[in-house]
Amino acid sequence: MAASKGNNFNKKWKTQGERRDAFDSICEHLASGLSKESYPHCDWDTVERYCREYPEDFPAEKLREAMRYQRLYWERQGLEGMAGLIPGFNATAWIFNMKNRFKEDWSDVRKTELTGSLQVENRQVIDPALLTHEQLEVIKQIGRQALLPPPVEGEWDDVGDGG
Question: What pTM, to 2 d.p., does this model score?
Answer without folding.
Answer: 0.62
